[in-house]
Structure formats: structure tokens, C-alpha cells
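User: Could you write out the 3D structure of this protein bound to nicotinamide-adenine-dinucleotide? I've included everything you need below.
Assistant: Certainly. Input first, then the structure.
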Amino acid sequence: MKLLVTGAAGFIGSTYVRVVLDARPDDDLAVLDKLTYAGRRENLAEVEGRITFIEGAIEDPRVVREAMEGCDAVVNFAAESHVDRSIADQDVFARTHVIGTSVLLDATRELGVSRYVQVSTDEVYGSIEEGSFTETSPLNPSSPYSATKAAGDLLVSAHVHTYGIEALICRGSNNYGPRQYPEKLIPLCVLNALAGDHLPVYGDGRQVRNWLYAEDFSRAIDTVLQKGEPGQAYNVGGPDEEENIEVVRRILELTGRDDSLIEHVTDRPGHDRRYSLSSDKVRKLGWEPLTRFADGLPRTVDWYRDNEWWWEPIRSGEYREYYERHYGRSLR
Ligand code: NAD
Ligand code: DAU
């Protein structure tokens, strides 16, 4: 199979590339990535000689057509992935998630690519106090990030309906694991704890997220690519639901720090209280999560502890400025 993976220099896309090459070493893989602040060539270092890397944006029709020529399938991870940044400035979120997805879908149709998978998020359903969302739950996004992701999903459905392309959507819950950019809760808290810095907890910290190891999400996406029914969406929830404050406390234990580093800060505007997905449909395709949070979190902490070469340049670059702008204080 010749596969194009967009956004694969990021956290989950690079994990997915490794998962695919482990499972099917003979697959021909091309990567298209704009290399934003979150896209890093070193995330693909282990597979560098086994993929074709193309630098470019999914909203650029010329680059997309060149990259997609001769491909059997496309998996689209390319995105601006941070909710807080979308609240501060949503422009690039609309361009990437709406225009970018539209360009990819047009090229999929015109070039007769057999299968297209859109990587999406549980956030398109909004917040849920009790129970879990299924694939037929209405979309009710809260933030500019999730609203533009939902728009991307609707474009996929429209292209299936109107042009009959074989596209599918895979909606994941909160991912964690090695190589996640430190703006996100878990890597941010791990690095701050290692440095003896404060851990910023939004509001009361009682918000609930459903944690999914990135390798498990990657295997689910590949299952959907191989076995999913065209036109369908599949929810992929992690096996463990946790309050943020408990995640932060666990990180403090794992790094040998105490609760005095916890700092409650101003809440995120429009903060979703709880996400929860039913994964029954993707489980019927044969997928199940293999990593529980109790095992995946210590593994993740160990990875950050052992890979300072990976995060040190990030903490001294763009991220430092972002941190000061967003949290109003300097990184230690
Ligand atoms: P990330 O921010 O780590 O990586 C995004 C990648 O996309 C980067 O390599 C970046 O350079 C690239 N990119 C951004 N805009 C682009 C553009 N216009 N053209 C080409 N490349 C572009 O994100 P991630 O956490 O790995 O998320 C990947 C996908 O999974 C996203 O679609 C996200 O919405 C979805 N998702 C993420 C999570 C999560 O918890 N991180 C959960 C569910 C779904
Ligand atoms: O649910 C899937 C989504 O998970 C993905 O679609 C997004 O791309 C991904 O970024 C993630 O979104 P969240 O907003 O849930 O992740 P984040 O790590 O930013 O925040 C997790 C929780 O922790 C959330 O309730 C906000 C809170 N938080 C976050 C940060 C960065 C804090 O309390 N303090 C912080 O400093």
C-alpha cells in the first residue's frame, strides 16, 4: 500500500508512522507536514530512511496533488492541536482544519485515492456530565479548535454523501505518551515538576479527561483504515477517566515532588468539564486499548526524564515565549 500521512512530524502522526512500519514494513509511506512549531523532523528520526518527507501545507493544492499522486490511501493528522492557542488566535485553525481538509478531500476525489481517514477528536461532541457519546451524538463543539475540527468532519461527510468518496472519521480522546509538545497538560507538568517549577491547574482541577496512549490510538486509526466501513465515524476512547488534579498529583509522585508545586490558575474560557466516548463500534472491528493509564503515565514520565535532548531545545525556543504570554510568568 502507498500511504500518505499528513501532519506526521507531530506527536500522534509520528507515533502512527512507527506503528504502521512495525506492522507492515513493506508499505510505501510519504509524509506531508508544514513543520509548524509542533512539527519536528526529529520525531521521525527512527524511520527517516524508510519514508519520503515532503514539507508543505495541506491547504496548498499544488503540493497536496503532488504528494497524493499514486497513493492508495491518505490519513490526515495535520492540525493545530492546542485549545488554548485557538482561544488566543483562531485564524490558522480555520485555515488548516477547514481549507486544508477541503483541499485534501478534493484531491482524494480527483486523483481517485481509494481511502481517506480524517483524524478527529472527542471535543467535537462538546462536554458531557454523565454517560458517553456515541457516533450518532450531535456535534456541539465549544472552542475554536473543536468547532473548526467539527467543520472538517462535516466536510468529510459531505464529500462522502455528494461524491461517494471512501472516507472515514476517527475521533480520539485525550492522547498522551512520548514526543507530545509540552504545551499539553501531561508533558507540561512533567517538565515543570522535573525543573521544580509550579504546575498550573485551571480552575478547580476537577475536569475529567479520558486518557488514551498514542500507540493505542494509532492502532485504532490503522484498524479503521483497514476494516472500517466507508462513510462511517468511529470513536476511540481511552480506558481510564481521570480528574486533572489526580493526573497532576500522580505526576508529582512519579517525579518525587510534593503537592506544594500545584498552583490553581485562572480557568480556560469555556472549559469543557468532561469528555467521554463509547468505543463499542471500533471494538467491533477488533481494536482494544493495550495500555492502562497506570502503566502509560510512568512510561511517559521516564521517556521525558531520559530524553532531555528532545525537549530542551523546545523549552528554550518558541515554547518559552508562548509560556510567558499564556501563563504570565517565566519558565524556570
Ligand atoms: P501536533 O500538534 O503534535 O501535530 C500536528 C502536526 O501537524 C505537526 O507536525 C504540524 O507541523 C502539522 N501541521 C499543522 N498544520 C499543518 C498544515 N496546515 N499542513 C501540514 N501540516 C500541518 O498534534 P497531535 O496531538 O499529534 O494531533 C494530531 C491529530 O490528532 C490532530 O488532527 C488532532 O486534532 C487529533 N487529535 C489529537 C488528540 C490529542 O490528545 N493530542 C486527541 C484526539 C485527536
Ligand atoms: O480530547 C482530545 C483533545 O485533547 C485533542 O483533540 C486536543 O488536540 C488535545 O490538545 C487535548 O485537548 P485538551 O484541551 O483536553 O488537552 P490539554 O492537555 O490542553 O488539557 C487537558 C486538561 O488539562 C484540560 O481540562 C485543561 C487542563 N489544563 C491544561 C493545561 C495546558 C490545565 O489545568 N492546566 C494547563 O496548563
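The mean pLDDT is 98.
User: Perfect, thank you.
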